[in-house]
Amino acid sequence: MQLAAVFTNFGPYHLARLRALADRLGRSGAKLRAYEMAGTERLYPWVVAQCKEPFDWITLVPDRTLESLSKLHCARAMTRALDRDQPDAVAVAGYARPESLAALAWARRQGRPVILMSETQGLDYRRPWWREALKGRLVRRFDSALVGGPRHRDYLIGLGMPPERIILGYNAVDNARYADLAEASRRASKGRQGLPQRPYFLAVNRFAPEKNLPALVRAFAAYRAGEPAEHGWDLVLCGGGPGEGEVDAAIRGAGLAHAVHRPGFLQADELTRWYAFASAFVHPSLLEPWGLVVNEAAACALPLLISDRAGCVETLVPDPAGTTGRRFNPSNKHDLTENLRWMASLSLDARDAMGRRASAVVADWGPERFALGMVEALKAAGSPTPSSSSFPLIRRPTRLAREGVSP
Of these four, 38, 271, 284, 379, which has the most CB atoms within 10 Å of its CB? Predict the structure, then answer.
């Protein structure tokens, strides 16, 4: 049995999930082929080394940047690859990209089970009823789904996918790697060299309006204004993007250039050192389908201050407040300021205890959870799974065909 997984571009998150899934499938002789559209992407400039992997890594257009490819080029390249490889089931990341839609159409034509991987939640945008009706027709073409958490499940249920066909566990990072690298940094004799010596709040984001970073800077300024100068924490903003000018203007306007640090965009291994010595993690997004940087921070045992708009918040910042941290309203500067003040007022022991609980919570949502979730989604879609003693080729009618709906 051969499963095809379709993504836009592989970053560290995808590779960790795919390795775990390939290992899980391989225990019963099944194989995984993973497709990415292009070799690079300007929006997310990840640098990942392509080495020997437990799955077939296929880059459809290796010598081009994703943004340079037309929709038609993406769709045709995906269709040609699937025609060539003839997988027995297909898992597709989202339904907005042309290669995702091409993979869905191919699976429907061939009568192969097709699984949606989704992190869409209902509160991210205004959603006109007519657009949601069209989207519902599209979503119902999938046989099952692997999603992030309860909000994402509820959204697909609202679009018409049966609850029993929706599995949790999509959003995962390599928890063990982040934890190990953070611990190694803490133990290194010069691990903190070049980092702020004061306690600091850490935020990791692409600099874009929805990430709400100027508001975080203003809330941080309000927090510092109420603290004795010798006791105030610093703020570190890791990342880069089109909103850098607005963020820098907010820093200058607050008069806190000495207390706000901008290391720029960092690859995963470089970033871990900043996690290792942070005193708390803050994520202020106005729009956030999940927030994988929260997984990273939790894996590094940081206490969490997380926007209540983030899709991960119920999972990684569970009730009661203070278990792993707190949720806040990102549109309310006072709420954010008070949560910064609350976190900074806690003892080191209290913050360490929250960080340990965050690490324990996220441990249940790592790459292995993704792999198990995909196996469950395969079962729900009606395909052979790794629990079977063999993997016969399945050509059963799709759910839509059984209902008399043309693909």
Answer: 284
